[in-house]
């Protein structure tokens, strides 16, 4: 069961100090934190979602009072709308996205993505549009002659867009620093880019090194920067002998937590735990929760 998010997480998302957040909390009754026995505020997943929505409105130029009013109006509309409204919107968006990819129609694909970003927070667009689209392409690439080309077409477009979003968010992101890369011989960085954006939305500052970084390079990264943890990811289900050798060495010599995500963290979970690394699976939110717990206890 999720234990809750500390105040620094919500404050980081909203880009305000904890004292400002407490003032807004009293004035606008936006959040419903519980208290630990020591008096620490713990915020719910719904509070986290509210913070993301509020940040999106503030980024659009609204003052805090205007943003709160609009957020409450949106909530009332959603509560009174039929339950099928939101799923049908994203079903249509995904269908149009699949059609644009199948026709290699870049203007339409770009319009779909940009229009979604204008209406919804990034996390919502990633969860309901980008990730399902790539799940579909990954499952169906071998079902027709153009499947590989479709996956490459979509990957090239979204990789550029996600990298742009990633670098745009860096100046306003403050929080624990994480070095992030694919495992050696792994080149599927799209999921890792999505995870970097998820981490930034949760108050972390991930430094993205892309695919196929030799693991021994992390020793220089740790020595040269104030990194709180390392995240590596792999899409395969098992490690090669050469990967095992390098991973064992880096795990023994590293003084900060090393987290492992993606399907490889499930397939080789016992091995990673045996060498002192932390498997975090391939669910973005669950992975963030595991990282939270580990860094807070270390």
Automatic annotation (TrEMBL):
What InterPro entries does the record tag this protein with?
Answer: Cobalamin-bd_sf, DNA-bd_dom_put_sf, MerR-type_HTH_dom, MerR_fam, Meth_synthase_dom
Q: Which GO terms describe its molecular function?
A: cobalamin binding; DNA binding; DNA-binding transcription factor activity; metal ion binding
Q: Name one Pfam family in it.
A: MerR_1
Query: Is Transcription regulation among the key words of this record?
Result: yes
Does Lipoprotein show up as a keyword for this record?
no
Give the species this sequence originates from: Magnetococcus massalia (strain MO-1)
Which UniProt keyword terms apply here?
Answer: DNA-binding, Transcription, Transcription regulation
- Recorded coiled-coil stretches: none
**Alphabetical list of Gene3D superfamilies matching this protein:** 1.10.1660.10, Cobalamin-binding domain (3.40.50.280), Methionine synthase domain (1.10.1240.10)
Domain HTH merR-type as annotated: residue spans: 4-73
Q: What is this protein called?
A: Putative transcriptional regulator, MerR family
Q: Which domain of life is it from?
A: Bacteria
